Amino acid sequence: MAASVGSTLLFDPLQHSRTANRASALSFPRQSENRSLRPGRNLRSSREHLVLSWRRSRVTASAVSGSAGVETSAVGEDTVDSLDDVLVFDLSGNAIPISDLWKDRKAVIAFARHFGCVLCRKRADYLAAKKDIMDASGVALVLIGPGKVEQAKAFSEQTKFQGEVYADPSHSSYEALRFVSGVTTTFTPGAGLKIIQSYMEGYRQDWKLSSEKDTVSRGGWQQGGIIVAGPGKNIISYIHKDKEAGDDPPIEEIMRACCS
C-alpha cells in the first residue's frame, strides 16, 4: 500500500485582510517595529525548537508502511506510551510487558489476525524462512496473537513456528498500535484470492481455534501487522499495518528494516 498525503489550504478572506493590513503596515518598518530583531522573540523561538526536537527524539520510528513499501508517517510518542501498559503471555502463562520483548534486543514482531487464521500460518512461514539471517544479525523473531495462552500453544505446536509465540488475551497491543478491525477489512476480493492461494499451497485454517468465543466475538475481524523494534523500549524502527487480511509487506522491506 503506497499511501500519499494530500493537503488542502483553506482560504479565509478575513484572515487574508488581516495579513494584508499587517504586510502594509510593515512595508517601511522602523527598527523598533521589526519584531525579528527582538532578542526575546528569538529566545522563545529557540526554546520552542529545542522542546519540539526533544519530544521527537524520544521515539525512533521510521514509518507506517503498506504493501508497496513506501514510508508514509511516523509512529507517535502516544503509541509508544500506550505500549508501556500492555502485557502479553508466553506459552507458560507468564505475563511479560510487551516492550520487554525488544528492550535489550532488536526483534521482528508479527501480529496475527487470530491463532486459527490460515493467512497467519502462511505469514509465520514467510518470516521463518529468513530466520537464519535474523539469527546472524542478532534479531529475534516473535509472533503475537489475540487470544488465550492455550490457543497460542496450539498454534505453536501445529505450525512448528521457529520463533517465540505470545498471547494477547486483552487485544491491548492491537489497540495501542491501532491495527484495523472490521468485516470490510476481512472479506475483500484480495483476501479471498490469498486464501485460495494459501489452500492451494497446503495451508489450512484451524476451525476449532477460529470458532472459539473470543476469536469469533473480537479476533475474527481483527487485522494485524508487523513491527521491527529495539533495542530500547522506545525504539520502533518499522511498522506495517495490514489494510486487509493477508496484506503481507515485501519480505525485502522487513529485512532492510531489521538486518541491513
From TrEMBL:
CDD domains assigned: PRX_like2
Pfam families per UniProt: AhpC-TSA_2
Domain of life: Eukaryota
Annotated stretches, region: Disordered: 22-41
A Gene Ontology cellular-component term: chloroplast
Protein's name according to its UniProt entry: Thioredoxin-like protein AAED1, chloroplastic isoform X1
Organism in which the protein naturally occurs: Rhodamnia argentea
